[in-house]
Amino acid sequence: MTATETVFDGAKAEAFGGHIMSILKDGLLTSMVDIGHRTGLFTAAAEGWATSEQLAARAGLTERYVREWLGAVTTGGIVEYDKASEAFFLPPEHAALLATPAGVGPLAVANTVLAKHVHQIVQAFREGGGVPYTAFTPEFTDIMDAMGRGIFDTMLLDAYLPLAPGLAETLAAGARVADVACGTGHALVILARAFPASTFVGYDLDEHAIARARAEAAGAGLANVTFELVDVARLAATPPFDVVFVFDALHDQVKPDAVLARIHDALMPGGLLFMREPHAGDTLADNLPNPMAPVLYSLSTLHCLTVSLAHGVRASEAPSGNRWHGACWPRRASARPRCIRHRAAHSTRSTSPAPHGDASGRRGQLPNTTVALSAVS
């Protein structure tokens, strides 16, 4: 691209004006989605047509606030409105995304919580460093639980496990299983209940998350699952694991290569790494057609990248091109979801640059790993 004399394009400016106002409008509407999720208004509106008074009574809320909220979500195209009866309704097509356990409500809550830290991230822009994970807890821990819980409830057993042939049978027969960066541990609670012959251990560095995980497991009366407060970059497993799960966590690690190295060493020969990560391209150019790319890059700026840079990784050391830190991992390194089977008996072709290194961050190839399942977006 060469420097040329620029001529102000009025039509382009007008079009961009509409675009940027749409972004700002949708940003404010995100807060309305947050309110509708937290108050139960979406669930109440999905039950049937109701006036603002009826909807407020249905949800147990103050009518004046409900009326104003309805003005926002109705003009925003979320809730339907009947002028004759002055009644409102959340149609089932919208309710599927806003009033179900696997809906997008928690993502709107995440936007609200992350926005509280913008001033800290602006400071990091100017001074370097980052915002540590502890600054986001316990709110962010609870949000991640809310975002993942419904998905695990509806998809873990019936949709995810079948993606790895033989995995369900391995778990049913009895296996030693880990969940690295397990968060509040709900995935392991589901697995421990479904596969009583297997033993499960979850690792995380968040005390609040581990406390919640232990409480849920105890409440479910499960004796085959435990949770440990551990820095997974220093993970050591004796005896080794048959299966290791990593759900949407590797890109958040300070040294993802070191974590992968620990997982590699913790797997027994023939063991399986099952990993779910954001599906992104290798470069910005690759991600331009991806409609979810703005979400991934924004989440990375507001959380994933800044957490990594807050813990001893200098910005100059963070590889460029989305290689390691941040939500936009390359397709070759991760996908949603995929599994990698470790075969110690012989070397096999690797279709991803699965990094291997020690805690110092040195990296190398793992020639004895192969992708057993291709990426699923």
Structure annotation, total helices: 14
Number of domains: 2
- Order of helix and strand elements from N to C terminus: HHHHEEHHHHHEHEHEEHEHHEEEE
What's the CATH H-level homologous superfamily of the largest domain? Vaccinia Virus protein VP39
> For the largest beta sheet, what order do the strands appear in spatially?
5-4-3-6-7-8-11
Q: pLDDT average, as an integer?
A: 84
| CATH A-level architecture of the largest domain | 3-Layer(aba) Sandwich
Share in β-strands: 5-15%
Q: What best-fitting shape do the alpha-carbon axes yield?
A: globular
Helical content class: 40-55%
Describe the structure.
The chain has helices at 10-39, 41-45, 52-59, 63-75, 92-98, 105-115, 118-127, 139-160, 167-173, 186-194, 207-219, 256-266, 284-287, 293-309; strands at residues 80-82, 87-89, 176-180, 199-204, 225-229, 241-247, 267-276, 338-342, 355-356, 364-365, 369-373. With 377 residues, the protein is of the alpha/beta class. It folds into two domains: 10-100, Winged helix-like DNA-binding domain superfamily/Winged helix DNA-binding domain (Arc Repressor Mutant, subunit A, Orthogonal Bundle), CATH 1.10.10.10; 118-373, Vaccinia Virus protein VP39 (Rossmann fold, 3-Layer(aba) Sandwich). The strands form three sheets. A seven-stranded mixed β-sheet has the order 5-4-3-6-7-8-11. The protein is globular, with a radius of gyration of 23 Å. The two termini are 33 Å apart.
